[in-house]
Design a protein that fits this description.
The structure is a homotetramer. By secondary structure, the first copy, chain A, is of the alpha/beta class. The first copy, chain A, has 9 helices and 13 strands. Chain A is globular and about 60 Å long.
Chain lengths: ~300, ~300, ~300, ~300
């Protein structure tokens, strides 16, 4: 099937993204930009943010690896030297490397469908969906449509850890780098979150922090809200309390019953989750103090 | 100063609005529409809603009083006869009668300014702002600009009821039919809400039910939300828990600190409150089971 | 695969939708509602609209067929008798009858994927996608995923009518009741529109009437707009000039180049087209004087 | 009357904003940031944009003047030296200097009211509204409320240039630095635009480039659009063709007649114009090739 043109400039060229954060102080921008300039790198894109209340600096810088004769190793070692005096925490991401994600779902197909379709058409940058895991068998046919391996990991209500161990094993075995909870109707235990060493993005079907927990659409209807929303966030041990990556809302009216809210909500859930996953895969998200800096996409 | 053309068709003609609600059953629409048709009234507008979960019927019907030779008394008495067998709760509103509102504020001027400006230019239908009350003196000059009487009712921290009694007295004395809390930073006591016999609309500077209570912008910033909102609702004894009339949101980013959220929020607060007040004054709102049916404006 | 609960109340029960329009005059509501009431039908939902500038009345009324012992024939014949004296133009739609749609696309998969996924999961009411037609072969695999017949109808540049005749033949052969142009990059000729006797919905990748015709994203970028949009409309002989069913927009910035606008635009196109198709299939759209009355969904 | 806390960080401290643009090439960021760093300036905020299609670089950099012992003259002369080799076009703005604006209006008060209220409460940064000019007398009382001088400059239909000359004279006499057309229903002639040497911002009551010229709401109604919008742009000789600074929209329905569109539109016009004026006054807008780079506000 026809794939789109590259999902973004990141895929089109041999680029690297540096994500940088440190306590705010003079000279960071000058020092970092000088580092790349002196080695001959072309800076393709540069975004900064200073959190004045936390006195913290954030930077996202994209360089064209083909613009300078410098190995990955030299580049990373060199940057280490710059980072230390400023107490910079940083990560570097090479856009040519494919990224493997695993999707967890339960029974509702819309978010899964949407993500698989986006991965298939090239709307997500350089991504490979390695597997789909569900605690129920119904979504197998959806995964099969896109030729993605599907695993049904049933939950033993007497020992939920059994299933979690199985899930972690599958994610590791497939070298998954990001787990996406696409309407996965289970809470990950603190133990699982400790063991799992990759980021996990969840879509919550409510406008957090309103309607944390179960049954948000019914509670939204009962409260008589005039807009409903969805929230994509990184999963932390605090239920629905992790750093928010993306939110959106739609207007509803008194005419919309609980089922109408659910129908409207499904579209918001799909798009909000897709945007959050895309932001993560494009290395636009940095987390500090449970809040997410999400740099704009552009280009 | 130039006033707009009539704020809506309601002001332009000699109309009456009937708001009707009853348990849902067959024949209501046929009966009600026959009542007006048989007396020769032209039905200018008719909106209905059935809350299927509560099995309750709502109707808003606008008739042209000039289209039939029938006194107000005859009309009201006649409709009483129709209403009884269906257990209809209803109210009738004559659009030619001006509506008196009172505005309560504290120190922030934006909502007050916005409402006074709308009343002045005819953007609110047939309304007269009878007075402005504040627990602080700063906004007197704003009221003075629009030649609206201003009353500063200071709060005695040892006996808050004193001030509330004073406020209620002023509202009564000015025959106010709707009180609008335009960033009035005080919680009305249960006693006051019992005594005050007019509806009260409040603007809450958060997207309810998120961030009920104090300091919503700081808490929104701390939670790292990606959208902020405001909520206009009728005041009930439950703090920020009354029926929601209108909500809206704006997108924010990690770049927005607490003060930026406040600045953005002010615009949302003004517009959301204005829309809610307008909906009330146009007799488009009906409340049942703590939820508000808000019929669309149109025309 | 798991299907959702019924897409709306229309699918769940044995309902009929009446769409009614006529010149505005007294007594229409009373007469129409009396017609159904006297035959014992339960009116499940009733929406009205009066276009004051055109002096025209519109009504959508949903009745529960199981609530009265009356055959389809009796119902339709009876309503004919009511309609004539008011010069009512009307149509009746029985929700139990499945609706067959045909999708035309070219190379871009996102709208096609979205519609097939919605039809598959029950998000569109009681619909069957009978076939997919394209002037290119690339999307065959997408149709195959959902086991929908795919036809590649190549265009002979010397005689475009050949392909149009082929397309019309296929739509007839499959008894298609609605054709959906899901990013079909061809203009239907006046002849084809004359011959095709079913409604056709198109998605235009611009906020009409801005950017009619080709290349809207590039022109939007050149004009430096701060929001881009998409428009779903019924196709008429006037290019991009048919009645608008649905529009939506997203905010963009100077950072977004043409490709970024296209990426953002794809999501708007998918959702706007889906909403328009759903509105049509739920019998919520009436057209008069090239403008579409689109009743709200609710329930 | 109570003023808000400073409208932004720019007002609170002794800051300068540099706006910089040049053809894109290596080393700009490194050079510019080194310039300020070496002189000891604290960079409070830094935003960049590269227009890849035009191969052009844009930068907005805010420095804290109190963080280094350097006179304005030294600073400007020094930066000139840096700018030349890169062909940088630049401007520097000192936030401590108040900015004088002039507002032109005709009869509709909403945008004028909104701007005066924002200037009064400190919502616009460090601004002084020097005068209001209208071609009609009705808005005098609005200006008087805020103690702003009002001038009625009538148009002689036989010689429109007379009035334009009068207006330009008034703007010069009051040392106005920005003219805002707040629903000024006159087209400025090419001659006037040549003579006036300050930027002019206009609010157009349509979603440009749709509905350029007169009567946009009626035309929007006739076209049956489902959203209406407003557009703030710099005025150029091409009618409604200048660089767009801000746009926004609201959803409308078939229920909204022309007057309802106008009412809804007024709120959009006010907010869109206010945001554009604020962006300009905060030195966040740069124009190149008839498109506006509008940096985000944040902070």
């Amino acid at each position: 099937m026809k794939r789109y043109a590259p999902a973004s400039m990141q895929e089109a060229r041999n680029l690297a993204v540096f994500l940088i954060t440190c306590p705010d102080r003079k000279g960071i921008v000058a020092t970092v930009s000088a580092f790349f300039f002196e080695r001959g790198f072309n800076i393709v894109h540069c975004q900064q943010h200073t959190d004045r209340l936390e006195s913290r600096f954030f930077m996202r810088i994209i360089i064209d690896l083909d613009s300078a004769p410098c190995s990955r190793r030299e580049l990373l070692d060199g940057f280490s030297g710059v980072a230390k005096p400023f107490s910079i925490q940083w990560s570097a991401h090479f856009c040519a490397d494919p990224q493997r994600i695993g999707i967890l779902a339960t029974r509702e197909p819309h978010c899964l469908h949407d993500l698989l379709s986006r991965a298939d058409t090239g709307d997500l940058p350089n991504v490979k969906v390695s597997l789909v895991i569900s605690n129920h068998p119904e979504l197998e046919s959806v995964a099969a449509r896109f030729s993605v391996p599907f695993f049904c990991c049933r939950i033993d209500r007497n020992d939920r850890r059994l299933q979690e161990t199985e899930v972690i094993g599958l994610l590791r075995q497939h070298h998954v780098q990001l787990a996406v909870l696409a309407r996965y109707m289970q809470v990950l235990s603190g133990e699982m979150l400790n063991e799992i060493t990759i980021p996990v993005i969840n879509i919550h079907h409510g406008f957090l922090p309103a309607f944390e927990g179960a049954g948000p659409y019914r509670r939204a209807w009962e409260r008589g809200v005039k807009m409903i929303g969805a929230t994509a966030h990184y999963v932390t041990p605090q239920l629905d309390g992790g750093p928010i990556i993306e939110q959106d809302v739609e207007r509803v009216t008194h005419e919309d019953g609980v089922e109408a809210l659910q129908r409207t909500g499904r579209d918001i859930e799909s798009i909000v989750l897709a945007r959050a996953v895309k932001a993560h895969l494009e290395h636009r998200v940095m987390v500090h103090a449970n809040r997410a800096v999400v740099f704009s996409a552009g280009a």
